[in-house]
Amino acid sequence: MPDDRIRRIRPDDVEAAVRLAYDLAEYERAPDECHLTPAQLHDALFGEAPKLFGHVAEVDGEVVGFAVWFLNFSTWRGVHGIYLEDLYVRASHRGSGLGKALLAALRPSASRTATRGSSGRYWAGTRRRSSTRPSARSRWTSGRSTASPTPRCTPSPPRRNPPARGLERLITRTEERRE
């Protein structure tokens, strides 16, 4: 059953989503790396041919979390999937199930793209807070949108080499050599 606190992002949510993106950058100890403007996010989400999609978590009329995603393409499988760019819930609302609910909201979107030739998979780059170096904070996780009503949210152990393909694998190896 869908969570009534989660809905697709609307144009009037853009300002709140930008504030949440800056909160996420602060949480990641990288506030100087966030340069997003409301105009940029609005154009990406609601422009003539949007390439970015999103959901928000709303509690008592306030947007307290968001998830933004886009379609990717697997050159190995020849199908589209979903890439979860960011998912963030304010600290005051963590532990209330909003993060899981935001992930669950992606399932119908992944299923819709699956019926149009997608893998039905979603990928998310997650960051560990201990470092701002991309090679030290990034790991890749994947989920299958068709497995259950709520994607599995069990933590997975960090991997030395993420299951990336092509360019991502090359970048990872290059960064490891620099360390």
DSSP strand count: 6
Chain oligomer state: single chain
Helix/strand-derived category reads alpha+beta
Helix content, binned percent: 25-40%
Q: Encode the helix/strand succession as letters.
A: EHHEEEHEHEH
Mean of residue pLDDT?
75
The largest pleated sheet is described as:
6 strands, mixed
- Strand neighbour order, sheet with most strands: 1-2-3-4-5-6
Distance between the terminal alpha carbons, to the nearest Å?
46 Å
Q: Which ranges are low-confidence, i.e. pLDDT below 50, for 5 or more consecutive residues?
A: 114-142, 144-156, 161-167
- What amount of the residues lies in strands? 25-35%
The best one-word shape is: globular
The Cα radius of gyration reads 16 Å
Tally of contiguous helical segments: 5
Q: Which characteristics define this entry?
A:
179 residues, alpha+beta, 6-stranded mixed β-sheet, 5 helices, 32% helix
